[in-house]
Amino acid sequence: MQCYCGSTKLFDLCCEPYLTGEQKPETAELLMRSRFSAYAIKNAQYILDTYASKSKQTQTLKDIQSWANDCIWLALNIHSSDETTVEFSAYYVNDNRLCHLREVSRFTKEPSNTMNLLTEPNKKIDHTINNWVYLDGDIITNEEIKKVKRNDLCPCNQYPTRWAIAQNKKYKQCCAK
Question: Which among 44, 92, 95, 101 has a CA at the least distance from the CA of 68?
């Protein structure tokens, strides 16, 4: 299965290792992609865990889970990225409306795990692991593209992700199930 984040990689070789904790994203863009995939599979805990400490204070697992459950996440398009920012568009269906969210997100690194390493007898050195986390973002647009009717072609057919395998199914026979 192609990864939800829109890469050309398979999910198990792309975002899944981040979502399971086997690996940590090495760049802000990889974290952005994995967070989109987490929304797509409704993994609210990963979303919460990848917020920066100061941003996490205004979030709840319940609210994140509710937003993930209310939406069908269709596609992610990365417009640009540098070391700490990612500009992207996300397409999703919410309440039978196809929507487009465009945002510039900011990321930072935070210490997440400290290990004491013994280098010499009785001498410890703290080794801090810094991981990428989502700090905040500026929404450029969040707009409804169109209302999706039950007998319309499912909007997932429009995006080059795993949902494209819907092969011309109607919305009621695909994502609206």
Answer: 44
Spatial contact of 93 and 76, defined as CB atoms under 8 Å apart: no
Decide: 17 and 49 in contact? Cβ < 8 Å. no
CA 63 to chain centre: 15
Tokens encoding 42:
């409704």
Across the chain, mean pLDDT equals 88
Give the Cα separation of 110 and 86 in Å (integer).
18
Unique residue bearing structure tokens 């801090």:
128
Strands (E), the chain: 71-81, 85-94, 97-120, 123-147
Q: Name 124's bridge partners.
A: 118
pLDDT of amino acid 114:
44
Between helix 28-40 and helix 61-70 the angle, nearest 10°, is 70
Q: What is the DSSP letter of 41?
A: T
110-131 average pLDDT score: 61
Strand partners, 51: 134
Q: CB count, 10 Å around CB of 7?
A: 18
* pLDDT surpassing 70 at residue 116: no
What token pair was written down for 120? Answer: 């010499």
Sign of CA dihedral 79, 88, 77, 5: positive
